[in-house]
Amino acid sequence: MSNSVKLIVLTGLALLLTSIYLFVDLGTNWEYILGRRSEKVIALVVTGTVIAFSTMIFQTITNNRILTPSVIGLDRLYLLTQTFIIFVFGSTSTIVLNENLNFLLCVVLMVLFASLLFKFLFKRQQNIYFLLLVGLVFGTFFESLSEFMQVLIDPNEFLIIQNSMFASFNSMNTNLLVISIIIFILATAYSWRYLKYLDVLSLGKEHAVNLGVDYDFVVKRLLIVIAVLVSVSTALVGPITFLGLLVANIAHEFFKTYKHTYLIIGSILISIVALVGGQMIVERVFTFSTTLSVIINFVGGVYFIYLLLKENKSW
Description:
By secondary structure, the protein is an all-alpha fold. The protein is 78% helix and 0% strand.
């Protein structure tokens, strides 16, 4: 089966699952139910798309298939920003009540952090792994700082922060759907000119430089795009650690190619199938006795251990 046929099969499967989720068992009050389901499906598709897209780009520029953007602390920075805003201004401030303003503020801060991290470190150390190590340290620092402020604030305000701390596909922040879609389209349009370099970047920095790619310039801009996309997914459902790892590696195994034209579109379709199909199973099989984030973290955690054991055997 060629990769083009595989993409067609995945597209058909995604459309089939989406149609079943939307139209089966609508009942008599179908207008209200269809509206609610449509809103949730759009949020699932946007979340799956940005996570798969950002993880595939991140794994390519780091040349490592067991890493995700969360390793450099971007999702923890988002939680720190939310905690800091409530800690300083309170839960009734305009920045908290105006969700779009709050979201844009977080996006700007995350982009600034990614830019400064890259610019500061690459002046001293031309090594992406050093960037990852420092990012990991910053992530731990952000998490500790958030916990410090959380124990000092009012318990009622802590409950507001708690909604952002854990991933939830049952209570997604659909109020941010429009601005999330606009930001995703702008980020994709911005990154479009650099996506053609991904096949070369997957060969490693030395080969990319030898083939004429302005490595630092391209990687810095792709990191900014990743920061924006992580902020979109975190704002919609909360921090998701293993979904990107899962779908990106399944795409590599399924397509068996280095061409990112197939890998990016394939990983997005796999992510949509996993989220829409998983949410349907949670609602109709488990009847909300568990959550999709728990299933994803369990399956993703097991797959992560498998990848580590597999890499260990290859040595």
